[in-house]
Amino acid sequence: AHQSKLGFFCKLGYGKQDICTVLENLGQEALEDDVLKELIRMGSKPQALESQAQPSPLKLVARGSCSTSPGSTWLREDDNDSSDHLRPIVIDGSNVAMSHGNKEVFSCRGIQLAVDWFRERGHTYIKVFVPLWRKEPSRQDSPIADRHILEELEKQSILVYTPSRKVKGKRVVCYDDRYIVKVAYEKDGVIVSNDHYRDLQNENPEWKWFIEQRLLMYSFVSNRFMPPDDPLGRHGPTLSNFLSKKPVLPEPKWQPCPYGKKCTYGNKCKFYHPERPHQAQLSVADELRAKIGVPLSLGKEEEKRNLPP
Questions:
Q1: What's the cofactor (predicted)?
Q2: pLDDT (tens place) for every residue of the chain, 309 residues total
């Protein structure tokens, strides 16, 4: 009997030492239910449960979380292409730099400000496109400021140079706008630019829709990069929803009643009354009766009697 019970509880995953201790305390003829209760009371756990109960060395973070704790490194490694809840960002480097330089200087500082803004929001896929000829020494007709920023962003795999070369002394430049729109379209991301790319819109109807729906314009206020709170207009999505793969719909907000406490519509009023607890849409007469403690049924009978024939 001892061996059979020992074998039975061993199969359940309990340790031999705990089982023997319980059998000695309760006696060899103890029922299996009593032995199990005693094992549980002692705090003994099956080994399979113990292995599950051990704290995981890696802290799991909910998908879509912006947590930057050490335990979330697995999420960042897995989401190198912004496969979480935020859209990939493709920045028109020339447009941003010239806007920050007041259309006179190619200001690399403007590109850095834009990249930092999206980084702080949690975006992991950020690409900036700049023509390769911007690597050449600064000329009087096209001055460039803070060129070292381009080198730093290139090392971080954020900056991408679009090809250009010289043929018989003339510069042949590939169209960088085409790169910007194509990559943003393929990644289902957002284009950051104040350019409308009208030539590319006319060229490809799919790109036309994409540029209309995914173009994020911006302004520079001193050294502050500022996109609009309503990128697609007053009736469009918020900036947060515009930059998210899964937009969050706002909770419906009840419009407060313009008459307030003077409203006589009672439960037929379609507006919100903050003074009515739990939105109990009572008539004004019923509210008064409730205050003085008169049952609603009596009040209704009284109303019926007072009604004209």
A1: Mg(2+)
A2: 666 777 776 766 677 777 788 777 777 767 777 777 777 777 665 554 444 444 444 545 444 444 443 333 333 334 444 447 899 999 999 999 999 988 889 899 999 999 999 999 999 999 999 988 888 777 777 788 888 899 999 999 999 998 877 676 676 667 788 889 999 999 999 999 999 999 888 888 888 999 999 999 999 998 899 999 998 888 888 899 999 988 766 555 567 888 888 888 877 787 777 777 655 545 566 666 666 766 655 555 555 555 555
| Spatial separation of the C-alpha atoms in residues 221 and 230, rounded to whole Å | 17
Domain 89-243 architecture: 3-Layer(aba) Sandwich (3.40)
